[in-house]
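Fig. S4 source data, part A: sequence.
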Amino acid sequence: MRKYIKTALLIVIAAMVGFMTIRAAITLFPSMPAQSNTAEGLAYIKAEEKADISANENAINQARDEVKRVQQSKHAAEEISNGNFRAGFNEILICGDSLVKSIVEYEVLDSDQVVAEIGAGTQYLSDNISALKAVNPKYLVLHFGENELDKKKYASYFIARYRAALQKLKKELPNTRIYVDSIFPVLKKAYKSEPYTEHIDHYNTLLKELAKELEVTYLDYSTLKGFFLKKYYDADGIHFVETFYTEKYLPYIFTEVYSYIDQ
């Protein structure tokens, strides 16, 4: 019995000595933290700092450009109010048919500010994309449709031609903001000589949908009261006299193009 008790005591003593030795070792020699790789974290921080600097520079440049645009457009607005449409439209190019060619014939704008021809249609636009690209306007206003009016069932062909021309134009002039005019209304007396003008509203509905589809700005003149007064029409009830352009059309285009300016 004594032999067993003695053996048990030796085991307990040995266990206590072992425990105390381990504790002392932990106290005297604490474990070192695992070595971590900080290169990846430092690279991320540097990249973020570089991105912040770049973002700040871009913001400053954008702010400067915006101030410059506002100053230029305000100056243009002053020129327009003084009747100097040539100076006011120095960033705007108009392309279309005889209804906009008249602006040059009345000497309100110069020939380099209006690319137009009598009887022109969407094919004229397609044929002159290279010329428009050479000018590279900041804003481009398109006026087509009167010469392609037909029966309602053929309106889709007109839209298809216009769509193709606009798609090509957007590709060639990616930085140009494009505006599509609605087709101007005519006086009722014009129905006799131009019967398809009765379908203008239908064509304009399709034009509006096309503009939305291709993400270009549609200029809808149909809702503008006092815009198409009888006094503005020429004898044929289709074309317009000079005052229509100086009092209505050009001021409206200018306002739409520079819509962010408080007129």
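Fig. S4 source data, part B ends here. Residues 134 and 173 are 10 Å apart (CA to CA).
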